[in-house]
Amino acid sequence: MSTAELHTLTGAYALHALPEDERVAFERHLGACEACAQEVRELSATAARLGLAVSVTAPPGLRDRVLRDITTVRQEPPPHGRSSRAGAPAGRAGRWSTYALAACVAAAAAFGGVAVWQNQVAQDARQETDRAQQHNEQVARVLTASDATTTAADLGDGARGTVVVSQSVNRAVFLASDMAQPPGGKVYQLWFDDAGTMRSAGLMNPSATDDAVLLDGPVDRASGMGITVEPAGGSDQPTSAPVALMEFGAA
């Protein structure tokens, strides 16, 4: 995917509407594009506010009333005080009326358009709520699995990390407590340890000090997990010393 194409994904990313491969590519792009990062922050805040708004439908008959009124309201003369005069090209008044009609129709349509747009934003917010609920249900499945194993570690400066693994569910959850926020432009990235080969397991929310993260992908044969500090958007392989390495407990 080209950089030009990535610049167009801010809106879809803010609404969590990107497929997994495009989301990963765009998050990497965010680490190098402050303009897109700023736009995502603004769009996310706006979407959150609008998602709580109630759509307002235009009053009944508004469009018909506007179209009726434009046939009786006198058109203002052209600018600079030059009204119709002898020698003026035939059809000018007709063209002005056409422009006024088009503008009024567009204005009337806009009332309905705003309601449709608000409905779409609200629908997107509901879909995001559904995704959050599905995430919480998956986390609960791991935490309550009969074969769940738990490993805890001291992450320094009072922070604690706990990883819960269920082989039957084939997923893992990382629980963070009192973690310091990463440096500006950085993010904590989680990794599965596949016999010494690190496999990306997703990113933590950089603004959350307490978090429950469902690791991306299946556990499979992973024997543990690690945490590193990476550029915003994450890395294909760890680029810094691990903040923590944790072995998965035996069932």
UniProtKB/TrEMBL annotation:
Pfam families: RskA_C (PF10099), RskA_N (PF22618). Transmembrane segments: none annotated. It is found in: Cell membrane; Membrane. Residues 105-243 form the Anti-sigma K factor RskA C-terminal domain. Residues 72-91 are annotated as: Disordered. Residues 6-43 form the Anti-sigma-K factor RskA N-terminal domain. It is a single-pass membrane protein. It comes from the Bacteria. InterPro entries: Anti-sigma-K/W_factor, Anti_sigma_zinc_sf, RskA_C, RskA_N. Signal peptide: none annotated. Keywords: Cell membrane, Membrane, Transcription, Transcription regulation, Transmembrane, Transmembrane helix. This is Regulator of SigK. It comes from Streptomyces glycanivorans. The lineage of its organism: Bacteria, Bacillati, Actinomycetota, Actinomycetes, Kitasatosporales.
